[in-house]
Input
Amino acid sequence: MISEHEVVIVGCGFTGIGMAMKLRLAGLRDFVILEKGKDLGGVWRDHTYPGCGADVPASFYSFSFGPHHDWSSTYPPQPEIWDYLRRCVRDFGLQPHIAYRQEMLSAAFDEDTHRWTVRTPQGAYRARILILATGGLKQPAMPDLGSFTGQAFHTAAWDHGCALDGKQVAVIGTGASAIQLVPQIAPQVSRLTLFQRTPPWILPRPQRVHGPWERQLMRHVPGLRWLRRAIAYWNLEVRGPVLYALPRAGRLAEAIAHRHLRRQVPDGRLRRLLTPGYRIGCKRILLSGDFLPALTQPHVETVTEAIQQIGEREIITTGGRHIKADVIICATGYDVIDAYARTDITGAGGRSLSDTWSGGLSSYLGVNVAGFPNLFLLLGPYSAAGHTSVLFMAEAQMHYILACLNLLRKTRARSLDVRAEAQDRFETDIQRRSRRSVWIAGGCTSWYLDHTGTNRVMWPKSTVAYWLRTRSPRRTDYHLHPES
Output
């Protein structure tokens, strides 16, 4: 039996929940959210590693149209963010719209009915509009663990049954999750070895606990919450040109990071190992006040030699070192680009999305893909911003999707499909602007780029420009298929 709806949203994380909230605010109630897990929350449900929390101020890492939340600090921990999402679902009455344990196996567009059919292990759903809110952080990148017989897991699937007390622990990776968890687990273990391929740029994390009086003011003084949000937005937005237009302007931020490193790591040899050799912003900029001091402890070692192989209870480096390990924690990020490309979606004319993207991810505004009518992406290719809250970009896309649905209603069209030439123009502009960005010219490799060194992820302009561009769809950029 097929369940019929006007809209199917795939994914019940931040963007899926936000899109559903916007649909409710617009008066549309015939929608369902398909969630592959047994609970809502996406990465904020799955990421339960020690120290997990926000790295964007909570006043801005929340919905502008969502309920006020009594944030305990500038950068709240994971349980608090997850609780915020549950509150959004409760306050907007979304729970009846969520179908759990419904992983999308495939989706296909029917050109006769102009409707999408989404298949899951439990059944099928049919809808006029398909919105993908699955995000890029869904396929953990795992190294080859060889013949390792100890306990090993990714930070995205923390093993809470694994006792670290007195163990020899190896952490592979120095990204956003590693800098949060290392200071938390270092006091527990007998020895901690951190395997670093590339040192990250680390700036101070201005964490501040919100006192009772401050929380009362936020709760009761009109406009104060919005003022704090605006301050957070502009404080982040002014940093954007360092990434997408003026890489050399990042020297001030690099100086701050170098000073932070000197203050927290007195040992010159270790400091050299932790000093990046590329421009700031080329990879994700990290915030921390306790990661670097954790690395100076006598039982903690930073290893920069590459891993050659992993044995039963040891890690062997290319330099011939044999490092004992009882537990391996993989803080190795995600296969963002490959995860998108493996999506089993068939559009008009039997066109496969994976085939369409075989030469590289592509989109129009990060929202549409030519040849896939009535399909909308949230945080698709070219919608990440390295200097601010990704939710700002997501909210702009939610507004744009609603504007497209309104265009369909006004024109009485059955479906809407972006023109290939419009998408090509958008792509050309993105790549032209990307050439001068720090992601291309900064001297590093990152998950922002594909195997050819082409930017497939980042928006190379200001978020103000993106907000303006997504106020309303350009009708001439779309094919509108009339009612039969």
Remarks:
- The first strand starts at residue 2 and ends at 10.
- The radius of gyration is 23 Å.
- The chain has 16 helices and 20 strands.
- The mean pLDDT is 94.
